[in-house]
Fold these 2 entries.
Entry 1:
Amino acid sequence: MDDQDAFLPYSSPTSTRPLLGLTVLVVEDSRFACEALRLLCLRSGARIRRADCLRSARRHLQVYRPSVVMIDLGLPDGSGAELIDELARTTPRVGVILGMSGDDNTERMAMAAGADGFLAKPVHSVASFQEMILSHLPADRRPSGPRMVNDEVIQPDPIAYRDDMAHVADLLGEGTDERMLDYVAQFVAGVARSADDMALAMVADALSDVRSEGLASNTVVAQLAGLVQDRLSEKIAI
C-alpha cells in the first residue's frame, strides 16, 4: 500500500477482484505494454502507478511504497535488474518484485537479481496476471475462499502502439548513437511481439543480430525506420 494511501480505508480482496487494496508500480517504457498492464490491474482491483525509466522509478519510490513492483529488464537508462537488486536488498522489502521482458532469456538475470517471479511479455491473460502476483503474496493479502478464475484476454488500445512507434521515430531521428541503436532494437522487438506485429519484430531482431556481429547497420536501420513510418501513417479506427 502507498504511504499516501495509509489514511484510506483498507479494501479487502474479493473473489472477483483478488488484487483489491494493492498498488502496483509498473516500471515500463512501452506505452502499449503499460496499457495492457493498466487494464489487467483494472480488472483485478489493483491501483497502478507508472515509471518509464530507472530514474523515474527511484524518484517515485522515495515518496511511495507500492505493494508490488513490476520491472521491465530493458529500460532507456539501464537494466531493470539494477532496480530489482536494489529493491530486494531494501528494508522493509517491497511485498512482491517481478521482472518482465519480451526476451525469455532474461528471466535468469531477473531471478539472480532477487525478483520473486518473472512475467514473459506480452501479458494479456487476466488469470495469469492475477496468479503470478497472488502466488507471491502473504496469505493475509489473498482473497479467502474460492476464487473466480477470470479467463478474459485484454486488448490494449492501438493508439498506445502508435505512441510507441512515434517514440521510436523520434529516437531514430536523433541520430544513430551506438547505445541508442541497441536500445531501439530491443524496445521495438518487445513492443512488436506484444502487438503481434511479426514483420516489425523480425527487422528489430535483424538489427540486434548485425549489432552483435559488429556489422554495418545502416541498411537495417533504414528498413526499420521505414516500417515505423508505415505504422504511423496507418489510420486507426476510433
Note: The first strand starts at residue 23 and ends at 27.
Entry 2:
Amino acid sequence: MGRVQDKVVIVTGAASGVGKEDALLLAREGARVVLTDIDEEAGRELARKIGDGALFLRQDISQEADWQQVFAVAQERFGGVDVLVNNAAILAYGTIEDTSLELWQKIQRVNAESYFLGCKYAVAAMKQRPAGSIINMSSMAGIGGVSSFCAYSASKAAVAGLTRSVAAHCRAQLYKIRCNSIHPDGIATPMVSKLHADKNAPSAYIREKDPKQLQARFALPSDIANLVLFLASDESRFMNGAELRIDNGYLMWAD
C-alpha cells in the first residue's frame, strides 16, 4: 500500500472503464485524484465513493480552456499535479474508404490534439514539482494498424509519437518528468462492448472477435490499471519514452 502516497493525479475519462479502475486503484494506493469526464453523474458518484481525496471536474478534453481550468483547480485544491493519466478517447468504425473528413477530424481532435494539450499543461505544472509522470493511453492499433479503425489507429500512432517527443524534451531540459505510453489490445470496457453489439460492425471485425479470441485477447480494466499504477509510482523512475505493450502477445498471434 502507499505506492503513490500523497501524489496528485489527474485521470481523464474517469467515469467508467479503464479510467475508473485507474482512479480507484491510485486512490487505494494513497493518491489524491482529480477525476475528469463529460459524464457528470457517474464522475461525481465515483468521487463520492473514493472520498475526501477525490475531486470531480467536468472536462471536454478537446477544449484548451477546460485543460487550463483542471490544472488551475488541482493547484488550488491539492497544491499541484504529479501525474497525468491521459486516458479519455473515442472509438468509431471507418476504413480509409468510408471514413469522412468530419469523422477523421473529430477523432484526431479528441484522441490526439487533446493529449497534446494535456502534455503541454502537465509539463508546465510538473516543472514546479520534485518529479512528474505523464501516462498516455495509446493502443496496439497505433502500432499494427486496424483496417476497420483508420482514424482511430492514426490518432493512437500520433499519441505514441507525441509521447516520445515529450520524453525527449524533458530529458534534454533536465526536467524530472517522464512520459510513457501504454498500448493495449482489446479491453473489456463499455466503449468496446457497444461496438460488439453494433449490428453494423464490419464482418471482418466480427470474425476476428470470435469467442475464443475474446477470451484470449481482451484485458480487464484492472490489468491496465496495474500498469498505470507502476508508471505513476517512483518504481518506474528510470522509464521515459517507453511504449509498453499490454496485449497478450497479439503481434505474435498467428492462427
Note: Strands lie at 8-12, 32-37, 54-58, 83-86, 132-137, 177-184, 243-246.
